[in-house]
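The following record pairs a protein chain with its ligand, S-adenosylmethionine.
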Amino acid sequence: MENQSTTFDFTRRTELTELMDAPCSRDVLRACLQDIARTNRLTFAYRPLIGWLSRLTADLPPLAAPLRILDIGCGYGDGLRRVERWARRRRIPVELVGLDLNPDATALAEEATAASSRIQWVTANVLSYTPPQAPHLIISSLFTHHLNEEQIVQFLRWMEDHARLGWFINDLSRAPIPYHFFRAFARVARLHHFVRNDGPVSIARSFIAGEWRTMCGAAELDMESIEIRPFKPARLCVSRRKP
Ligand SMILES: C[S@@+](CC[C@H](N)C(=O)[O-])C[C@H]1O[C@@H](n2cnc3c(N)ncnc32)[C@H](O)[C@@H]1O
């Protein structure tokens, strides 16, 4: 298959596709998701969310029930396992649910999770999903760039309607330097060929702050309470804490 990541052309966003979004065997998906998890660790990708959770929970009055956190597009589940360790260390009672469209992803997330974990894994399309119990927080990482702009507006509205306390999007920041850096890094680190293709494509499919503001506006969100914040390397996070 032709490598789509040789050029950096923002205008072709919708034409760029990720290999991991096409059907593949569970073994191939496992190898791909394991390399995304490795890249997440090497690039400190959990930090923005853990910082946000720490600040938010420090300000909260004691909750009557465990803090329910729903992770959308959970993939291999490494992000949610990181949240579980954070909560355990801080003795914060949590109920964690990871949701993914791909049944192989949720099966692999479960396979990679210790039997002692209480995380639940759900297979569903978020755009037609109603949580049985409203989560306090809805989070996602490397998920929104898989959607088109109209679906992102729908997703923003969906989070706003379902999250009781707030939501946090952790995605990539579209910029040439990370795009070229990641292509070189993926080759040197001998990442799975899906990740070598999909990493740069993901950066090219991601958004800049002004585009996030436009999409939040289209979702009729209160812009005063939206935070759009870059994190090194190459992340742009969008979040809202409800008053
Ligand atoms: C790049 S992976 C992100 C995995 C993980 N969150 C991380 O940060 O490494 C994106 C995931 O989003 C899932 N996904 C794409 N569209 C979805 C949808 N409409 N509903 C739920 N999950 C979706 C894909 O199946 C894939 O596992």
